Amino acid sequence: MGIKSFQGKRDTSQGKKDEQILVSDYMTTKLVTFKAEDSLDHVISMLIKYKISGGPVVNDKNDLIGIISETDCIKHISESKYYNMPSDRNNTVGKYMVSDVDTIDKNMNIFDAAFKFLSSRRRRFPVVENGKLIGQLSQKDVLKAALKVKGNTWK
Prior knowledge:
two-stranded antiparallel sheet, 4 strands, Diverse_CBS-Domain, CBS_bac, Inosine-5-monophosphate dehydrogenase
């Protein structure tokens, strides 16, 4: 009689199976970016307005120079409260941003990128080409890719 499979009929076509799903297929290219001289108050208002948890910091040539997050802003708020110092204009992105930024290659397989998220515990990776910011990949972007792939073989 043989063994019956509960997995259903398998896809035997060779079409998209061999194609890799790349970071560039799912990265966001329309980004909210910040400058090092922006005030933290400006950053906080932008994070709230656009419902984002952070963003890349670029110079006038669109070179990636850092990243600023909600955590960085909360650190500033916490320090201000602790030292009983009100927020002022000298509290800039450049003072609180993280300068040593991990980036991701646009040609990386999206599921290798997922592993990079797991091993680094980051929420987003800027995508850089020749030093210039060209996009950003978030954990949500990886989830979108996973939903689209669904039952296909993941490479």
